[in-house]
Amino acid sequence: MNRLVLLTLQVLVAVALIGAWHIATTYQVLGDVKNIRFFFSTPVDVALKIWKFFVTGMIWKHLWITLEETLLAFVIGAGSGVAVGFWFARQPLVAAVFDPYVKMANALPRVVLAPIFMLWFGLGIWSKVALGVTLVFFVVFFNVYQGVKEVSPVILANARMLGMNERQLLRHVYWPSALSWMFSSLHTSVGFALVGAVVGEYLGAASGLGYVIHEAEGTFDVTGVFAGMVVLSAFVLIVDYAVTLFERRLMKWRPGPALNETPPKW
Amino acid sequence: MSNAAAQTGSPPREAIALENLSVYFGTGANAYAAVAKVNLRVASGEFVAIVGPTGCGKSTLLNAVAGLLRPAQGRALTLGRVVNGVTHEAGYLFQQDALMPWKTALANVAVALEVRGVARAEAEDRAQQWLARVGLAGFAARYPHQLSGGQKKRVALAQTLIRDPSILLMDEPFGPLDAQTRGLMGDLLLQLWQADRKAVLFVTHDLDEAIALADRVVVMSAGPAARIVSEHPIDLPRPRNVADIRLDPAFHALQRAIWNDLRTEVMKAFGEQGDGVLQAGASA
User: Fold this and answer.
1) What whole-number distance in Å separates Cα of residue A145 and Cα of residue A167?
2) For residues B249 and B237, what is the distance between their CA atoms, to the nearest angstrom?
């Protein structure tokens, strides 16, 4: 498919959706416009609200707080996930002993931890970071654990034959393999870090995107809720794109997707 | 490259010796004897090929010499020393891809020297020279997934030989390659081997390849409890060209003689896989 055609079609979807939204909230099509506006606001109002967010500059502070929480949650969660995953994979006894507890902790819906974290870490950023860490940790942990355990036995035997000792095996074989698994879960874990931050803010905070949305909701300001959601989505897309760029740089040894994913149609 | 044996003055005559070697997999009543009571000697500088039906434990022998497997009985010796742990005098070329996918071709070769304490700059310098020797001078910056099967094998060959091991163990190294590439890899191997004559133990299921490369071909029986059935000296003149030598009448005579032994074992292995019909064909 031609890139331009694809882009046009993608834009058309947005135009159609926003157009439908606009018509339904401006003209008498689906019933009382005033009623519908209360529940759905209008695209123009939402756009104006977003414009105001940025013009007054109030949104920057919240964006920055959310970004800070996301990054901290990611770094702490990924770091501890790599360390513990590595440790468990190299010490099967430890892994066997902790196995039921790890499964239990992972089975727990993380949202129920939020109130506890508020209690422990207060209403500042750290309770949100903690929530994000509990999400990120398990994704990275499971990936690294699997990655270290499933290093190709042939690569390992070859490395041994090349004369590598345990320390060198760790550096040249286990570590890169574990990292590659961590990076393969990068999108998921960064996404989870963000979810942790926003959900945490939503449940109780004085700043951040989650707080902006929650506050608007509290005053039945549907326009504010939609505007907050649009900003949040754009923020997620930008973060995700940054991750993609980072990944491309670090994982260039990985084979890319096959050139022809679908057979040609004649 | 100078011969390792020449440096030490009085070379041990035998590079590899297997004495009454048996290897079991599993324990107790379920133990499976892969190879039983194998005796084999490889002189320094000798190229020995082992042929046998699939699953006969050819690779098991190599792993025992390499120190990747512990024998249940008997012992393996390299350069007169009993194998006890990974054999550092030996280089091992695996059938499967064994290159580290996260390292470039150059880094894969250089790391073999780096782990011995050679400084990175020097290691990369020598790795570059080895890549040139295997015909990959322009591919240093490629990652394994950017190389063809034959190119990967050549990088692996450079990675193994840069350490200058006195023993070379090869486990169907060219098995996954297509026929033409296999012939070219054989020629490359012979050309490199000719330069400093390491002791080689080369496992293959391809009899033609074995005859074309080796000084001696050893036929193994079908498993379980595989043993050595016969040994055939290959007195074809060197240097050899893998493609041309197959046309030599002497080659055909050897091929017939060895195949006679090998066929019986191949059919046995085939029959054990549950295809009784083909055993009737074997006797015809």
Assistant:
1) 18
2) 13
Residue A119 is encoded by which pair of tokens? 């209690």
Contact A161 B66 (CB under 8 A): yes
Residue B155 near residue B147, CB atoms below 8 Å: yes
Q: In chain A, where does the domain assigned CATH 1.10.3720.10 lie? A: 42-250
- Strand B228-233 to strand B14-25: parallel, antiparallel, or no bridges (unpaired)? unpaired
CA count, 13 A, side-chain hemisphere, A139: 24
Note whether B151 and B141 are within 8 A (CB): no
Could you tell me which residues of chain A have a Cβ less than 8 Å from any Cβ in chain B? 152, 154-155, 157-165, 168, 172-173, 176-177, 180, 252-255
The H or E element spanning position A194 is helix A186-203
Tokens representing residue A65 in the block: 């707080």
Please name every residue paired with B22 in a beta bridge, in sequence order, or none if there are none: B73
Cα–Cα nearest to A89, from A137, A143, A136: A143
Closest CA to A45 of A201, A207, A216: A216
How far apart CA B110 and CA A35 sit, in angstroms, is 72
For chain B, percent of residues with pLDDT exceeding 70:
91
CATH homologous superfamily for A42-250?
Answer: MetI-like (1.10.3720.10)
Per residue in B10-31, pLDDT (tens digit) is 455 789 999 999 988 887 777 7
Residues 6+ apart with CB under 8 A from A177: A147, A148, A151, B102
- Residues of A with Cβ-Cβ distance to B100 under 8 angstroms: 155, 159, 172-173, 176
Q: What ipTM score was computed for the predicted complex, to two decimals?
A: 0.84
- Burial, A156: exposed, middle or buried (Cβ in 10 Å; 0-12, 13-18, 19+)? middle
User: Which residue has 């606001």 as its token pair?
Assistant: A41
Paired with A266 in beta bridges are: none
Asked: is B13-45+52-87+206-283 a CATH 3.30.479 domain? The reply is no
